[in-house]
Each structure stands twice: as C-alpha cells, then as structure tokens.
Amino acid sequence: MDFISNLLVNIAYAVVIVSLLVALFFGVLKIISGIGKLSKSEGLHHSSVNFADKLNVGIIENLKKLKIPIISILLILIVLFSYVDYDSIAKPINFKNEKTKRYAAVIQRLKDIRTAQVAYKEKYLTFTGDFNTLINFVKFDSLLMVRNMGSFNEDTMTEADAIKYGIILRKLPAGLTAEEAVKKGFVVRDTIKVAVLDSIFPKNFPIDSLKYIPFTSKAVFKLGASVVTTGDAKTGVKVQVFEAVDTKPFDIYDTLKVGSLTEANNNSGNWE
C-alpha cells in the first residue's frame, strides 16, 4: 500500500514537472516571437512562429496515435487514486476495529494477572514480580477456605443454596450472631485446602499463557512488585503494590497496564 502511494505521488510530481517544462518551452518561444516583433526582425518572428506551429502539429499528431495508451494509463491512474482515497478512509476504521478486538483480550489477561496476584498476596502477604513464581503458585499451591456447617440464614441464603454448598440445615435461633452460633455449637467451621487454580479461575483455564500478551508471538507482560508509602514519609502507611504492563501495544500511544509501582491505586487498570 505504501509502495502504491509513493508511486502515485511520484507520477503526480512527474506530470507537474513535465507540464511546467512544456509551459516554459512555449513561453520561451513566445518571448522570442515578441523580441522579433519589437526588433522588427520578421525572420526571427516568423521562424519562432513556424517552429511553434510545427511542434504543435507534431504533438497533436503523436497524441492522436497514442490516444488509446494514454486513455488506458489515465483510467489506471484514476482507479489507483480512487483506491488510495478509499484506503485512507478505511484504514483508520479498520485500525479502530482491530484495536477494540485486541485490547479486549489484553484487558482480560491483565485482569487475570490481577486475580492471581491478589490470591498470592492473600496467602503470602506480598505480591510477586516474577511470572514463574505466580504461575506455579496458581498451578500447584492451595488456599485455606473456611466452611460453615450446621445451619443457614434464610435472610441471606435459600434452602437450595444451603444444600448446594453442603450445609446441614438447622435454623439459627432468632437474634443469634454468627460468632455466638459457633460458640454454642449451632455452627461448625471447617478449614479446608482448595487448589488455587480451581478456586480463582474457571475450569481448563490456560494458566501457562498468563504471562503472554494476546495477538503477539509470545511477547511477555512486564511484571513488577514493590512497596510504596502513602502520605507522610515518616508516618505514612506502607502498601504492597504490583504492576503489569503491555510491552507490545497495538497502539503505541495507548499502552495498557494494571496496578502501579509508584502509587497505591487499589490495583486498578488504566482503562478503568
């Protein structure tokens, strides 16, 4: 496409230059003829006029012979210019549509990275700046989950949901808090280990692809973790932070990222 555009630009320049040269040539002849008139040199005047006439006749005759090739070339140029004009309109639209599709996938991957980081921090109280550590955590590690067994609260859970989650149905006495229910034996809390992958991602989630940027040849997000201090340097609170950045943005003027290494932004993405 760039080659065709450059070719058409060069053709346009050539046409302009040739037109200027022809105009300059006939202008010189007219000047010579004018000089002949002013100097009363009939020979010079008639010679320039005859030469111009012969040149005009020769050009016209040759143009008649080349009429079909010239018309063909003009038609081709018209088609090429029309295509370039159409492409100049369609190109931004196609770019926008492609960007929308690609960025939706990149945003989802950044959200998945955030989900994994939050789970990692829940267990280890810090974020990680290493993808291998994060992926291995999701694949092979587990989280402690607390399950309440013994009753359900009809205000917040239906009987069907209670059965679904394996809760033994026994209605709590009115006005009894959750902690009081545990102390009096109405509720038994059971702590169990749940695989991280099963608890935070859907079945068959491609966890090994977590670090790769969609629509690239396995380009990797830039991942980092740090600690920032909010407020005053002496009395401020230290906050664990992480950041994941698209290193191969489709639009170089619009780079997607989640989190920040310079401020506590609640792990927000810059698209939110």
Write a brief structural summary.
With 272 residues, this protein is of the alpha+beta class.
Topology:
Elements lengths: L1 H37 L3 H24 L1 H58 L6 H10 L1 E8 L9 H6 L13 H6 L4 E8 H5 L21 E9 L6 E9 L11 E3 L13
Antiparallel strand pairs: 1-2, 3-4, 4-5
User: In total, how many domains does the architecture comprise?
Assistant: 3
Spatial order of the strands forming the largest sheet: 3-4-5
Give the assembly state of these chains: single chain
The profile of the biggest β sheet is:
3 strands, antiparallel
What share of the residues lie within helices? Answer: 40-55%
What integer is the average pLDDT? Answer: 76
Gap between N and C termini, in Å? 36 Å
Q: Given the helix and strand composition, which structural class is it?
A: alpha+beta
> If helices are DSSP runs of H or I spanning 4 or more residues, what is the number of helices?
7
What is the overall silhouette?
A: elongated
| Strand segment tally | 5
Uncertain stretches: none
Summary tags:
272 residues; alpha+beta; 3 domains; 7 helices; 54% helix
Describe the structure.
- By secondary structure, this protein is α+β, with helices and mostly antiparallel strands.
- It folds into 3 domains: about 1-95; about 105-135 and about 205-260, no CATH class; about 140-200, no CATH class.
- It contains 7 helices and 5 strands, in the order ααααβααβαβββ.
- Helix 3 crosses helix 4.
- The model has no long low-confidence stretch (mean pLDDT about 75).
